[in-house]
Write a structure and sequence with these properties.
By secondary structure, the chain is α+β, with helices and mostly antiparallel strands. It has helices at residues 4-43, 68-71, 103-113, 136-145, 157-169, 196-200, 204-217, 244-256, 283-295, 307-322, 453-459, 465-473, 476-486, and strands spanning 87-94, 127-129, 174-177, 181-184, 187-188, 226-227, 231-232, 300-301, 332-333, 336-337, 345-347, 361-368, 405-409, 416-422, 429-431, 489-490. Strands 1, 2, 3, 4 and 5 form a 5-stranded antiparallel beta sheet that branches. A 3-stranded antiparallel beta sheet has the order 12-14-13, with no helix packed on it. The model is unreliable at 381-385 (pLDDT under 50).
């Protein structure tokens, strides 16, 4: 017979365990509902003028497509997008060799081209999205004047081939110029979102350890993508977004023109003073959308079943490591297996330079004396606010090196700190893209200029030159083995 006190203890433990199990099941149920709600939002086709939960104006007025799923669909829902879904940017540069104009005159010139080149604080924003769709003929005329290219709504195969040909032959066309500035049109290819939730959970210190390890090894020198002086970037071609939720909010605002918390929709150049009355997506809806993206499964490596095919696959995997691809494309980062990336910024050479730069790293120097309350300068913004990146400390793209040091006032505490700005090749640094799912994500590189995996490999420069050199020395069979291995990294 069980003693009465022991029976009471066992019963109590059982009640506690049952209650805990019920709470876990309830949490799982709520998460499942949130993910399902997020999936509905991901595939939803938004409409122009349809009010959001708090008086928003629906799709646009500037937008690149009508839903998340319209562009993210290669391989399966959440994948990348073809060249026809590329995002066009427009970057302002000073005319080479021309004297720098008066700041006010420069602002007037930029505003005459597009009012969003100068923000509400009279700061120059050197790069804008040149949206695919906008309100009426007036917008499309402005877009044409800025050098925007025509992309058919639903291009056929021949039209996609022509888009790819133009991009590959001239990835950075200079599209217009004035007496003071010229405009160049970079592009960005749509990335796959598979496994994004796993990347989001990688701790900051893992990135810093990888950076230190590579510095000690001396083969490559990755840099932690900086978000201001302290935070780590995980998403975006320049690593300019800290967390997945930031990335999702930015995409809602910039790609769909939805007004969402902390991310206003892009300025309509045909009505610069217009702002929507409220939000298009509530904070809860945005959290659901992020939950769905975070739940997307990671891609897998699919190994051939036939012995001779597996032999070729294994040979390609060996070559991937032996010629140096795996120095940056690590198979595992922290607990994330099969990612084939270190998620750090690397110099990829002048051939892949782009005016929408990476941000420099900041190293703390000293705390500055705090002036009296009435004499404190306003806190400096950490970023020019462009979703696609851009160096914080340069007012026009590629106009010279950033300053050697900066003073930043903490918006919360009011503390003023001085930081050293670490010089690096900001225009040619790119976050190492994860190769998981690469077989289903053509075209390749940040702007999709590489139509095939072979093209992408051969366009690598900078820190990857040694690996490209060894790849060129391989015989044809081994080159095919390596590319065959990459072809096994498929979408889930």
């Amino acid at each position: 017979m069980v003693p009465i006190n022991q029976w009471k203890l066992s019963t109590g433990c059982l009640i506690v365990l049952t209650t805990a199990a019920a709470a876990i099941a309830a949490d799982a149920g709520r998460l499942k509902e949130k993910i399902e709600a997020g999936q509905r939002l991901f595939i939803k086709e938004f409409s122009v003028g349809k009010a959001g939960p708090n008086g928003g104006d629906g799709l646009g007025p500037l937008f690149n497509h009508v839903s998340c799923a319209a562009c993210h669909r290669q391989g399966s829902l959440g994948g990348g997008g073809g060249v026809e879904f590329n995002v066009s940017l427009i970057s302002a540069q000073l005319q080479p060799g021309a004297p720098r104009p008066d700041p006010k005159l420069l602002q007037v010139t930029l505003k005459s081209l597009h009012p969003a080149f100068v923000n509400g604080d009279d700061r120059i924003v050197p790069t804008l999205l040149l949206h695919r769709f906008g309100p009426g003929e007036k917008y499309f005329q402005l877009k044409s004047n800025l050098g925007g290219q025509y992309v058919p709504l639903d291009p056929d195969k021949s039209e996609r081939i022509e888009l790819q040909r133009k991009l590959t032959s001239e990835p950075l066309p200079f599209v217009t110029k004035s007496n003071h500035v010229r405009l160049v049109r970079p592009q960005r290819n749509t990335t796959a979102l598979f496994g994004a939730g796993l990347i989001d959970r990688i701790p900051d210190d893992v990135f810093h350890r990888l950076e230190r390890h590579q510095a000690s090894e001396g083969k490559v020198s990755g840099r932690v993508p900086p978000i201001g002086p302290e935070k780590v970037g995980r998403f975006g071609w320049r690593g300019q977004q800290e967390h997945l939720h930031d990335f999702v909010l930015g995409a809602c605002a910039n790609e769909l023109g939805l007004e969402v918390p902390r991310n206003p929709q892009p300025l309509d150049p045909t009505r610069p003073k217009y702002r929507p009355a409220g939000l298009d997506l509530s904070a809860e809806q945005c959290e659901s959308l992020t939950a769905f993206v975070a739940a997307l499964d990671r891609p897998r490596e699919f190994k051939p079943r036939q012995p001779y095919q597996r032999s070729h696959h294994n040979r390609g995997r060996e070559l991937f490591t032996s010629i140096g691809c795996a120095e940056c494309h690590l198979e595992q980062v922290d607990a994330v297996k099969g990612i084939f990336s270190d998620l750090l910024l690397h110099d990829m050479g002048a051939g892949l330079a782009d005016p929408v730069m990476a941000d420099p790293s900041l190293v703390f120097i000293r705390r500055l004396p705090t002036p009296p309350e009435g004499e404190r300068p306003p806190p400096q913004p950490i970023s020019p606010g462009t979703y696609y990146g851009g160096s914080t400390f340069q007012d026009l793209a590629i106009t010279g090196p950033p300053p050697t040091s900066v003073e930043i006032t903490d918006a919360k505490t009011g503390d003023r700190n001085q930081y050293k700005v670490v010089a690096s090749k900001l225009e040619s640094e790119w976050r190492t893209p994860p190769l998981w799912g690469v077989a289903n994500s053509a075209p390749y590189l940040h702007d999709g200029r590489a139509a095939t995996l072979l093209d992408a490999i051969l366009l690598h420069g900078g820190e990857a030159e040694f690996a490209v050199k060894d790849f060129r020395l391989l015989d044809l069979a081994d080159r095919m083995h390596l590319i065959s291995f990459l072809g096994s990294l498929q979408a889930p």
